[in-house]
Amino acid sequence: MSDLRDFPDVSYSGVHHGPLQAGEWITLSDPKGRRHSVFLERGRIFHTTKGGIAHDDLIDGPDAVVIRSAGNVEYLALRPLMADYSVSMPRGAAVIYPKDTAQIVTMADIFPGAKVVEAGAGSGALTTALLRAVGIHGEVISYERREDFAEVARKNVTGFFGGEHPAWRLEVGDLVESLDETDVDRVVLDMLAPWECVDAAAGALVPGGVFCAYVATTTQLSRVVETLRAHGEFTEPRAWESLVRDWHVEGLAVRPGHRMQGHTAFLVTARRMAPGVKAPRKKRRPAPGAYGDDYSGPRRSESVGDTPTATDSSATDT
Ligand SMILES: C[S@@+](CC[C@H](N)C(=O)[O-])C[C@H]1O[C@@H](n2cnc3c(N)ncnc32)[C@H](O)[C@@H]1O
Question: Which residues pair with 28 in a beta bridge?
């Protein structure tokens, strides 16, 4: 693996300028738009059904060129954007797709200098976006309980930045057992049971900090939202999903694309109240039967909401 010193990139953005170099990833696209990720190494050949492409013919040359295979087929060679890299890099666990990463970065309000806790690191796709958003003055602490996945994440993240990112710490372990951070601005969870982490996240987050969970199924969505409510010291959770539809634009044929990604996951965010301050109860009554006999999930205790809210206490200060 190359060292960051090979790529004088003071911003640690993962973006490389200048001629293509051995030790970086490029994307080769064939005439049908099929894309292949290639790790450039001197002396290597990328084999296609239409003949080989010598890495040496790209190394030391410019980005964004057209290269011909030995069989005379044109391939577009480009440095991948972060979104391209995250969907084509080697995977251990399933990755968060760019449409959801974009939502997380904005809606969980990941900012330069933020201290962010993430779990699980999985393949490291979200990690790269978090690191890019927090920058070198921030901190991303990623927990991953599977050592093999942690290794995949480490390779992918260092591969993207060209070496160790100074703002990143990868902890191999279960977040519930190992999280001992405080003053955390944001907690972002992509795992099977994020509700198990609500207490640990509450202990780590600063007042006003953002809890964000990414869950694939409605049963997970319900459980994490109700656990946040039952905890009491989080604001009313917001739950949503994002649907992205590509468009075909060609002359007079301008229409939605035939294919779209139907479902990836749901997102949930809530803000951490100051310790000991209960979030105001929702004013509206729950829908009839919402918490009827069939409901067996987490419930808010009756006393919740009786204590002063953050708004109440600040009102007495003025
Ligand atoms: C879907 S993957 C995360 C993918 C990652 N967000 C990405 O974009 O590449 C979920 C990961 O969470 C890990 N995991 C599940 N529960 C965990 C916990 N309590 N603490 C740490 N890691 C956990 C799993 O081992 C798995 O690798």
Answer: 36, 77
Tokens of 143: 């927990």
Minimal-distance CA residue to ligand 1 atom 14: 120
- Map out the domains of the chain as residue ranges: 1-7+21-51+63-80, 85-276
Taking only the tens of pLDDT, the chain with its 318 residues reads: 445 445 445 689 999 999 999 999 999 999 999 999 999 999 999 999 999 999 999 999 999 999 999 999 999 999 999 999 999 999 999 999 999 999 999 999 999 999 999 999 999 999 999 999 999 999 999 999 999 999 999 999 999 998 999 999 999 999 999 999 999 999 999 999 999 999 999 999 999 999 999 999 999 999 999 999 999 999 999 999 999 999 999 999 999 999 998 899 999 999 999 999 999 877 788 888 999 999 999 998 754 443 333 333 333 332
Q: Which fold has domain 1-7+21-51+63-80?
A: Vcp-like ATPase; Chain A, domain 2 (3.10.330)
Tell whether ligand 1 has an atom less than 6 A from the beta carbon of residue 123.
yes
CA–CA separation, 237 and 163 (whole Å) = 37
Q: What is the DSSP string of 211-253?
A: EEEEESSHHHHHHHHHHHHHH-SBPPPEEE------EEEETTE
Ligand 1, atom nearest to 101 Cα: 8
For 289, the token pair is 């039967």
CATH homologous superfamily of 85-276 equals Vaccinia Virus protein VP39 (3.40.50.150)
Can you read off the two tokens belonging to residue 107? 């809606």
Residue of the nearest CA to atom 2 in ligand 1? 122
